Request: fold
Amino acid sequence: MRGNTLAAGLVGLAVVFLIVAVLYAFGVLQIMVSDPSSHHHYTHAVLFAGLAVASLVAANFARQKKTT
Amino acid sequence: MTLAQALFMGLLQGATELFPVSSLGHAVVIPSLLHWTFKQSDPSFVPFLTLLHLGTAGALLFIYRSQWVAIIRGFFTAAFRGRIESQPERLAMLLLVGTIPAGILGVFLEHQFKVLFATPRVAAAFLVVNGGLMLGFEHLRRRTEQRAALQGQTRVEQEERFGEAEHITFRAAALVGACQALALVPGISRSGVTIGGGLMAGLRHQEAARFSFLLATPIIAAAGLIEVPQLFTGGVPIAEYMAGAVLAAVAAYLSARFLLRYFRSGRLDPYGFYCIAAGVAAFALLTFGA
Reply:
């Protein structure tokens, strides 16, 4: 049960990371960027997309598996 | 930038990226010592660095091509299964865990670190610090060898008592990955601190170098690929830059081959002494004028 709660939390985190990645890609977010005049921050977008994938992988590891 | 300068910078970048002597430190210090006029803060210099990084990443991918196939396959298999069942799967997950802290710190701190530290004299000073770190890592390793009573054995026998990259803990992988962020400071070597981190995690020198090179590949390749669109902006001398990148790839390939052979029994000490000597000499030349 605890594993499934953690997995759900990690999926939620993945969604947040994905949203942040999209916001950086479209230039809506400008937090801690080297060039605020630039419209797109692909480096930040790629980082947060990567973190979203990592969170999903971690969620799959955390969820309780069916024993066969 | 002339063709000769591009070739020299390619050779310098390719060789020093993998040797534990700081490529960024050398790239900041040497052009300044040679009184070259091109500015590394110039926007046209970014595409050049991009190509050099792609060259280095290409060489590393070529050397570890069969391992990368197994790692990528292992990553997807373990990720979908939700469980690790083989060595390549474990290595894939260790690399993922090691890449995350480096990626976060790199993206958010790179610009700030460059602004603060990317001056030749500061880079020279940090080269000395890097040398001290290399000697410190080896000092700690020797203490571990003493505790394990390995003094009477040959270096190869001593090394065999330490572990392989696939067996380190995930916490150690994250720490080694975080060490990469130190290399944002010009003068601190990325491969040096990650090899040192690997030694602290109980790896053999050769395995610490392999883990360092594998850990570097996604970061170097991603940093290069993200900047690729800049290559197609006007005024980029693409032929000169490409020549530099090819030389960087050749130098990186030869460096990696040499280092993997060297670390079968070799230590970080010579690179530590070199960094201290080079840093002191460069600092003196830059301060008192050459």
Chain B has one domain: 3-288. The interface with chain A takes residues 79-83, 93, 96, 99-100, 103-104, 107-108, 110-111, 222, 226 of chain B (CB under 8 Å). The longest helix of chain B spans residues 87-117.
